[in-house]
Design goal:
six-stranded mixed β-sheet; 3 domains; Rossmann fold
Length: 329
């Protein structure tokens, strides 16, 4: 009541005693307070938090493809181990996550500018990322600072935090100071956290890589062999914001499972996240980030191709969701 009285006085609005009595009676005041809280965002619609969570899962991988990655561990080149682990990890990421990929040292020998953004941070495209990872050939130097700077520049306009994962088998070889650079980039307001995986590194190399992770607000992971490298990568993407939850969709025609085409969309959006077919008796199964989604199930076995739409499907963390799309002949 005091809040509204002060507002009227500030705005020069006068009210009679009768008007004030009616305005400040309990029922109108409660309604006005509810309206004010809603406008201020104190009271939000159900699902608003879920949609926000869907849009905040960003991860960029910086992969060392310098000449030293030709070195072998257990009879296999380090680059081959790194590529295999990263491909399997990407294949298992949940739909809805945004992924970027940067590599260095993969095109030219002795070139400290050999840093390339292979895939800008965008909606997960497994096939494109996997093809680009497979094509990498270790050749050149280790320009860590340049690769970090290029990556961070692309994140300046983002409001949500991005996770950067640097994989390296050595320290900077192009004269930069990546530890100091990472510290300055974060102090400049760019929102990111950086984890570092040191793959078969010396104590001296480990010291610099640990410093980078600390400056980036992240964790340093030591990997001396293939299994430790796989474990380190798994730990990074097992953090809560990257964890997906299973959605299963079954298509029924006259009560019996049949093959149908399933499309997944973020709630209210037109760009498709993922798609695929049910495989009777198995449902279509996909890993999604927690949030709210729309689903379209298409029967393309008949000329008119009928569609069943499942709207506002809520995917909760650590809880498998099962949906049924029913068709009739």
């Amino acid at each position: 009541m005091i809040l509204f009285t002060a507002f009227f006085q500030r705005e020069g609005i006068s009210m009679t005693k009768k008007a004030r009595k009616r305005f400040f009676s309990p029922r109108p005041v409660i309604l006005i307070l509810l309206l004010t809280l809603t406008i201020m965002g104190v009271i939000t619609k159900p699902g608003a938090g879920a949609n926000k969570a869907q849009q905040s899962a960003n991860i960029v991988f910086i992969l060392d493809a310098s000449g030293s990655m030709r070195g072998q561990i257990g009879g296999r080149a380090k680059i081959d181990i790194a590529k295999d682990v990263l491909i399997k990890l990407i294949d298992d990421l949940p739909a809805g996550i945004n992924v970027g990929l940067v590599a260095y040292g993969h095109r030219r020998k002795g070139d400290c500018n050999d840093v390339e953004e292979l895939a800008p941070l965008a909606k997960l495209n497994r096939q494109d990322l996997i093809e680009k990872i497979k094509a990498l050939k270790p050749r050149g130097k280790t320009p860590i600072s340049h690769s970090v700077e290029l990556t961070a520049e692309k994140l300046q306009s983002l409001e949500e935090e991005t996770t950067i994962v640097l994989v390296s088998d050595g320290k900077e070889t192009c004269g930069g100071n990546p530890c100091e650079l990472v510290k300055k980039l974060r102090e400049s307001g760019i929102k990111f956290v950086m984890h570092v995986i040191g793959f078969d590194v010396t104590p001296e190399e480990k010291q610099q890589l640990e410093c980078i992770a600390k400056a980036g607000g992240g964790t340093y992971y030591a990997a001396r062999n293939a299994s430790e490298f796989r474990l380190a990568m798994t730990k990074v993407v097992s953090k809560p914001k990257f964890k997906g939850t299973i959605l299963k969709v079954t298509a029924l025609k006259d009560g019996k499972p049949f093959q149908a085409y399933v499309q997944i969309f973020r709630q209210g959006e037109e760009d498709r996240l993922e798609s695929g077919y049910t495989d009777p008796p198995k449902p279509f199964s996909i890993k999604l980030l927690p949030g709210t989604y729309d689903i379209k199930v298409l029967d393309d076995s008949v000329p008119d191709k009928p569609v069943v739409e499942l709207k506002d499907v809520v995917i909760e963390s650590s809880k498998t969701t099962e949906k049924i799309a029913e068709f009739t002949k």
